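[Automated response] Your request has been received and processed.

Submitted sequence:
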Amino acid sequence: MNLVLTVYGISAFKEYLLPSMDNTNYSIVIEGALFEIGDDISLNLEVVDRKWSIEKSEHYTIESKCEESEIYKLKNGDRKTIVFSSNYQLELIVSEVSNDALLTEKVRHK
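Generated structure:
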């Protein structure tokens, strides 16, 4: 099983499949043009003992109901808010999927 991070904005959403790796750092790029937030932002992740987490950054903060620490753990069913330094917010939902899951990207056409 893998984790998928689904990122929702006002104009788009995108799913990011986290790779099957362990004990390393990884990042995904939140595309500024896709989400209409300006510049691209790297969301810094870490996986240790097959448990994923988001690392803090000067470019964003993570809002979560029950977590205040240097690292934000990710597990199936989590909902978090990514708040960028520009005060723009994106919603993040964590899902566990089988290895052959189909990922999607949706953009609202103007």
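Summary generated for your ticket: The chain has a mean pLDDT of 85. The radius of gyration is 13 Å.
If you did not submit this request, please reply to this message.
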